[in-house]
Amino acid sequence: MIIYLKSRTTDEIIEVHIDNTRFRTLVSLVVEDISAPYYDVFTKVNDKLIPYRLGFFSFLKLFIFSGRYQHKLKNGQIIRTFTTRNRQLSYLHLSDNGMDKKMRKIQTKAYFCGEFVNLIQPFNRPQLAFEKLSERAQESGFAYFKYVQEHYPKEKLYFIIKRDAPDYAKLKAMQRVVIHGSYQHFYLLHRASLFVSSETPGHAYFWRENMGLTANVVRTKPYVFLQHGVLGFKKLDNIFYGDRLTAPSLLITSSLFEQNIVTSQLDYDAKRAPITGLARWDMIDLAQERMNNRDKILVFYTWRPWLDDISDESFRTSQYFQHIKATLTILSNYDDKQVILMMHPKLHATLDQSLLSKVKLWTDNDGPMNELLSSVATVITDYSSISWEAYYREIPVVFDMFDQTRYADEVGSYIDLDELPFGVKVTQDNHLQVALSEIAERHYQLTSKELADKTKYFDFQDQGASERIHRQIQSLDLSAIRRVKRRALISAVGRMLHRSNN
Question: Where do the coiled-coil regions begin and end (predicted)?
């Protein structure tokens, strides 16, 4: 018989011939010539595609033990069988996330041990901090962890990081550092009462490891979202909406302006969106920043979700690629400052080397973003929260929103993109040179209005954010939060099982 694998993000449909539709056959399926990340399985009846749905017990097997049903492809990628809430069979195509069979055995032992200890010792549980993919220690997660170690050394706050991460070196001498993938890591995922991070809980685990017992514990763990930057130019994913099971217990904000966005558009009350400032700003001495030698222009364009799964050829013809290429061509002749480029890896691979040779391509190996910004004179960006970071540091910003209409439709913004609170907005390539000339004329300083308005968007500029965040965390009633989440989870599982039986 034939089944059809339909991509969720493209029009691609792959025909696969199989002998039967037994569970063992379907979970052993290996398809080499696939490119998109997610495929749903269909059969065809009267030339119409019909979702292929699993039996109830097969559904439970995949929902709990999906990690067992994965296969490595010849190109090093992995294909994994999983199921959706409505019991449809699906396949996930992903790069190797590092989770192997040995780790799965360790994880199983840690799961039962962690859950057992939670039963007999439900109080005085530890907390976990981490950053992007558990590979970094340079943002608010690390800043808060470092603060707690220095000022509250008896508190059981641990930090997760991969042993081969470049930032691991700065953690070697610190206490309560946990190696990602170790028994202690898996144990603490279950034992911890709270996650504290500028990322979602999935970054404490394994990327796209989204099913199984541990994955579901991680997904529903109470957490404090420290944020990357001030909200405004980019809407958050719906997992952050206040009424969701996946929503944070606290969403840290920097001003009444930002708190109003969270309460009016994300359905939080003000208590869940405390105004503290970002923990990583504690590492910034504004008085020193004003005296720094600023000899760089930083170029940082955010990625577009509609470009995720297109070919390199299509990417080269996209407006995004062509516009950035034109911008870099202009800046390649700019002699006043060194031009630094931070970009998505796909852009690195497709830009002309002759063009890249005229600018400095900045990667994680060159150092953290916060260190780079201390020597930047101007930031050129589009909708990135790096603009708020620049504003906090009193660095002039040029906004190049060349695809504003499409961005507003497909991503969305919390503020009017035609009435920006700070910075210079350009609409044509030649206007970029004019904007840079105006900024140079005022010696790369903010305007008097931008300086006067700064307190509207940053209530605190005093290196005290971590202490304010700590007080907020100490005031949380974690037992009550866990009860609410437990009820919501039981209700969600009940609805899912009800759908699976219908």
Answer: none
